Amino acid sequence: MVRLNELRDNPGANKPRMRIGRGIGSGKGKTGGRGGKGQTARSGVAINGFEGGQMPLHMRMPKRGFNVPNAKKWVQIRLDRIQSYIDSGKLDITGVVDAAALIKAGAVRKERDGIRLIGSYGFTAKKVTFRVAYATKGAIAAIEAAGGKVDMPKAEEPKADA
After folding, report:
1. Do residues 76 and 108 make contact, with C-beta atoms less than 8 angstroms apart?
2. In sequence order, what DSSP letters do the residues of the chain get, joined into one string?
3. Domains of the chain: which residue ranges?
4. pTM value?
5. Residues whose CB is less than 8 angstroms from the CB of residue 63 and which lie 6 or more positions away in sequence, other chains included
6. What is the CATH number of domain 75-151?
7. C-alpha distances out from residue 101 to 7, 116, 147, Å
8. What is the pLDDT of residue 119?
């Protein structure tokens, strides 16, 4: 049976604290384990990433990519997913299918900078007119093959998807 007043650490689990600066014979006298003189011997110094004059690791690594500061945030939706909303009766295709209709159907949450139709398969709905910001060539071909139409008021190829 274990008693709380008899609990002890294992032998050697805790080392006694090293008292620095207590004479040369202690092994941590004189400089107190800080080496010679200079910036790092002083208090309040933190040289993060400094490697003694060698080129630091974060500067040796290659730079990759470029983040466009004002990139368009498109809401992409696949044609087969739109077809599933049409089949379930959530999306009304009698009028023009635009961002408001897709939000009302629950296919997308927000419009952001515009709806972008992607995908080239799984779309069979007849005579659907889409008004979106952008559609891929495959999506346009699939919609027109089914007898529909794509209207892109400001058709511009997005430079970077964010």
Report:
1. no
2. ---GGG--PPTTSSPPPP--SS-GGGSS-TTTTS-SSSGGGSTT---TT-BTTBPPHHHHSPP-----TT----EEEEHHHHHHHHHTT-S--SSEE-HHHHHHHTS-S--TT-EEEE-SSS---SS-EEE-SEE-HHHHHHHHHTT-EEE-TT----S---
3. 18-61, 75-151
4. 0.55
5. none
6. 3.100.10.10
7. 69, 14, 20
8. 92
Block mean pLDDT (10 aa), the chain, length 162? 93 93 92 89 84 90 89 93 93 92 94 93 90 94 93 69 54
Tokens at residue 129, please?
């007119």
Q: How many CB atoms lie within 10 A of CB 139?
A: 24
In a 10 Å sphere around its CB, with 0-12 CB exposed, 13-18 middle and 19+ buried, how is residue 98 labelled?
middle
Residues 4-18 as b/e (b if ≥16 CB within 10 A, e otherwise) read eeeeeeeeeeeeeee
